[in-house]
Design goal:
Blueprint: E1 2-9, E2 12-19, H1 24-31, E3 50-53, E4 56-59, H2 65-68, E5 72-74, H3 87-94, H4 104-117, H5 123-129, H6 141-151
Parallel strand pairs: 1-5
Antiparallel strand pairs: 1-2, 3-4, 3-5
Helix pairs in contact: 3-6
Length: about 160
Amino acid sequence: MLHEITLNINGEPYPVIVKSHYTLARVLREQLGLTGTKIGCENGECGACTVLLDGAPVNSCLVLAVEAEGHEIETVESLSRGGDLHPLQKAFIEHNAIQCGFCTPGMLMSSKALLARNPHPTEEEVREALVGNLCRCTGYVRIVEAVLEVGRKAGVGS
């Protein structure tokens, strides 16, 4: 069955026609060309597809596109504005928190959600927020350091 829906993504409406079983991750990448959201495991284990749904991190491979209608969706593409990197993106670069980069969009979105609700997290809180995001390259230390650095600066959770 086909559904005509409008998804609110990064502050913009996107009318799309989707099949009932299409995931949000699939629609973002394949229909809308928002390829920053990565598809890894497709069963909610790796976090590569993490986006924010009404400000909360979700695995977009587990959310049907039709379920996302009427909600605010933020993807990694929302972080940089007018060519300026978000403080989290800058910190990831400065701390060499990126290796292969496949997990990075999900890590960034989970970190953004954490900082929005807790602007000055502890190391334990950062690690807890990232528990659903798997990285096979970095060992997490530099990622945690990057998030903690941004947390020390005011007003970056938005």
